């Protein structure tokens, strides 16, 4: 069996890592195509190196652009690569513009399409990722869902017969890296001193692209009573610069995005996380740290149970940030809604079982 994976943005490299390993273990031929949506070494290369992912077989170097420009620039080259390889499965990951472009390219040339992390929904139609998810799920032949809640969404949309619950592949990686980080022993996180600190990431368009909202978030982070290690995505830096907004103020300690193992170590050493990232919300939950999410909703609703994750939707809610962000961990999670860390093996099993059936 030949699987062709298409990835392009940081969270997709994390998801690719356990899948590449599972393909290797099962003797499955695996072609990796990188669209080039993320191209900064800190957002791309370090993930391949640290997570021991084989180098991409094809790199399309598409780069940044508006949604239409970026998605459109990927379509033609992806079609050509897929025609050249004619895989048994095209495998797409998550909800980025790379996901949608690969999905459209594959189904138009009648290649079986599997969507990993299918069925997540925010029900927020202002989010570009929500359209990418919904359109990809409805195009795909096989929907590999991470949770029971995702399975429910797919069933509600009439997609139950194409859906399989496999668990969450990010959990595979998170547990593996956590164990390695703990075994290696803790090393101090630069810039935050010896006391409690928070880890923060902000990059979603809803938070960065409205000047008043962005200024309110930066002010609230700066006013926190402990250091805030802010791992600044290029989109955040660019928007602050454009608006003349100083990021390095008050409690904020600005740093580059971290490689995955250092990110896990920083969260493990922290008093909590303040973010708008989907992946980091779940990682905080898996690592037993309290998360505060600056969004109106979350796709990972399981993290809300037991108070592990708290949403602060509006700028007015930011007044409560000090008390909420430093509330400490909630009740220990009773359930393991994201699986036990063997989702990628299940993914390859299901692809093998359904080969030729799509
Ligand atoms: C994308 C995904 C988002 C995901 C995020 C993870 C879409 C619609 N969004 O958002 O779901 O959570 O990746 O990080 O696909 N830039 C650089 N260097 C890079 C990449 C981007 O400087 O290597 C800057 C550019 O100014 C670019 C901006 O970041 O215009 C946005 O990049 P883009 O890939 O369009 O979206 P992200 O915000 O990264």
From TrEMBL:
Gene Ontology molecular function terms on file: isomerase activity
Protein's UniProt keywords contain NAD: no
Keywords recorded for this protein, A-Z: Isomerase
One Pfam family hit: Epimerase_2
Domain UDP-N-acetylglucosamine 2-epimerase: 24-351
CDD domains reported in the protein's UniProt record: GTB_UDP-GlcNAc_2-Epimerase
InterPro entries, A to Z: UDP_GlcNAc_Epimerase_2_dom, WecB-like
Family: Belongs to the UDP-N-acetylglucosamine 2-epimerase family.
Name of the protein in its database record: UDP-N-acetyl glucosamine 2-epimerase
Record organism: Cellulomonas composti
